[in-house]
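Can you give me the bound-state structure? Components:
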Amino acid sequence: MKFWPLIRLVPRATHFNFVGLAPFAAILSALLIVGSCASVVVQKVNFGVDFVGGTTMTVTTPGPAPLAQIRADLAAMGVGGGEVQGVGNGNVANVRFKDVKGQTGEAGPAFVAQQLAAKIPGLKVTGQSFVGGTVSNELLIGGLKALGAALGLMLIYIWFRFQLQFGLGAILAVLHDVVLTVGFLSVTRIEVSMTSIAALLTVIGYSMNEKVISFDRLRENLRKYKTTPLAEVINLSENERLSRTVITGTTALLALSGSIFNPASALFSLTATMAFGILVGTYSSIYVALPVILLWGVSRDEEEAQPVKLQQRR
Amino acid sequence: MLALSRWKIIVVLASIVFGIVFSLPNVLPDSALARLPGFLPHARLNLGLDLQGGSSLLLRVKTEDLRKERLNDVAEEVRTSLRGAQITFSELAVTNGVVGFRVTDATQMDAAISALSRVGGQLKGGGRDITITRMPDQRVRIAFVPQAAADDARNAVAQSIEIIRRRIDALGTKEPDIRQQGVDRITIEAPGESDPQKLRDVIGQTAKLTFQMVDETVNPQDAAAGRVPPDDVVIQNSENRGEPFLVLKRRVIVSGEMLTHAQQGYDENQNADIEFRFNGAGAHRFADATSQNVGKRFAIVLDNRVISAPVIQGAIIGGSGRITGNFTLADANQLALLLNSGALPAPLEVIEQGTVGAELGADAVRAGAISLAVGAGLILAFIVLAYGLFGVFAALALVVNLLMMFGALSMTQATLTLPGIAGLILTMAVAVDANVLIYERMRDEANAGRTAIAAADMGYRRAMSSILDANVTTLISALIMFSFGAGPVKGFAWTLSIGVITSVFSAIVVTQLLIGWWFRVAKPKALPIA
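Here's the bound-state model for the whole set.
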């Protein structure tokens, strides 16, 4: 039986010194974290109406959307915080605003829709969403609670399956990923909505997945090579699973790449965030989670633990 | 692990059949779907509002308004009870959620308390829903017990949902989804409804209808200054013929709950009006009131505005009547609809509103389908290039996985949203990861010198713990998303969970079967991936 030649992204045996690069990676991570925080502080995160309240409206016009005219019309209506953005092939525009002078609550969007349709012939409002201020805070608090609960449960699971320092390493690495992804959202000005939260949670899921697979190999090699220094075992494990890391990472990016063909779709910002998260998650498995374990150390004689002698109490 | 056990073959075949049968309705045209035999499933994917277009509203029941109303009712009951017992009192008022008053004569204090014995109502679990406290200086304060407030709010929300459902059903909107969210929130999702204004119109009005007598003893100057007797109330008059407001008796003769049926009709001048019938109790009370007050005026009050204040010409004993006002045909129809479905217990506040046009939804579906197809195509091609024949097996497993996911999503009718599609895409990648882990292990084992079949077997065994740990952590995050998330995130979490389960099954069991079969047929000496 003859097999066709397989593409190999990684040679059969590699001997990268992953641990040797860790100090540089630490500096890089620190810089990226500072950069992310700075971006969040300076230019904030572009929160969508889901979080800050207000209205978004999608309008369609027969010809190219007259963005300048829409802006002027909005200003004339006394709209606060108005933003107009062309989408896709040009005859669709996203209109966003906070409130309308003299209109309360949900009367604002209705007023704007009616005015725009009257002023620009052929304009149709194809989508609209209005969020009152009260929901927003609850969403944010709910989101943070969910994040905390998810990380807590994962910590417990990893602690249970591995050791405590593995769990803490994983949590630190995931926090690192979350900070960088939020920084990415801030730098790219991607609108953060409820769906971005889903993207963020997926990034966490993927990142955790990477960590667990990396830990699994490390645990196995720690049992195999009981006297080899930890740094060497880490290097060995990462080299052993390098091919898998590259192939799975490539597959994940390929899976997401389908949405490149539709940059106007809301799916695009979602998959862009996920793609960034996949890169960062892969990086942080090697350069955040493992260094934490390396610095902390592991208990090597876990397997030969003495059988517990039951003491009888009187 | 590579043995071709019979149960394994049966399970895999069954899951493929399941996937095909339940996914089928999604690809069949409507006409073919209608001709499908009855025992086969007919449900298609349940697309979220963002994909199929429609309107959604998030409402809050203003329970604080309800509270205020209930306190005012208690104050009225106190007034009537004390008067009935001929006790003089002053300063009866509602302040800060408490009804308070002062008994003028200290010797009447005990009589006052016993006169109040029938004020208020019963709690569901038994016991009185108010507490009456004696305060210094002959004062009495009456407050609701906390449980009463909670019960009221809960009832109000449940009742509101029921009434909203009746009103929206009357509009003819297709299958609206109306659910309680949190303590005092209600979400309404109406697929296919592109005009949320229509929804808002029918739920924006509480439609509280009352018939009350007009107090004509108060002169307009006093009324304008708000100087009216304590059992009177000044109400805006929307009829507005030189009378911007009317002074009415607080006592309600008949209220909207006593209507059995209302419909739009025409008066003698061919103007739209609303014709209604009272139930037995209502008819009786209305007959009594009209026969005792011939020549006087009564007012029909809707949501705290007088819509009509006719003079009683004679006793109305038939139990039916009509409301005339300045109605347009549409107004009259809508009011009849609202009266029939009952009054909302409390006003509703719109806190979130969304519409997705059908075109926009179709665009999103197209974008999602293209992304999914391109992603799947690239993954299949890549995995075949990377692992050759075993890659083909993994690709087949991925196809089975996709079939099962679509089948499961159609069967459970879980809502598929745009983020859900992103979840599906990533699930494909994670599904392939399981195969990558297994195959890389096989390579390692083969390189370590094992025979082909031993290496393949060890590959599955050794990779299992990684796959298990990785997928449990993913399930944990999906679970958290499901319990904390709002609508769209929930749909995403559900999609992710289904994907994790089907992908572990297909990546392990389906490829095991294929590889086991290949070993039996080809009797290879080496692994195609080594």
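A couple of observations. The domain at 6-53+358-522 of chain B is CATH 1.20.1640.10 (Multidrug efflux transporter AcrB transmembrane fold). Chain B touches chain A through 81 residues (CB under 8 Å).
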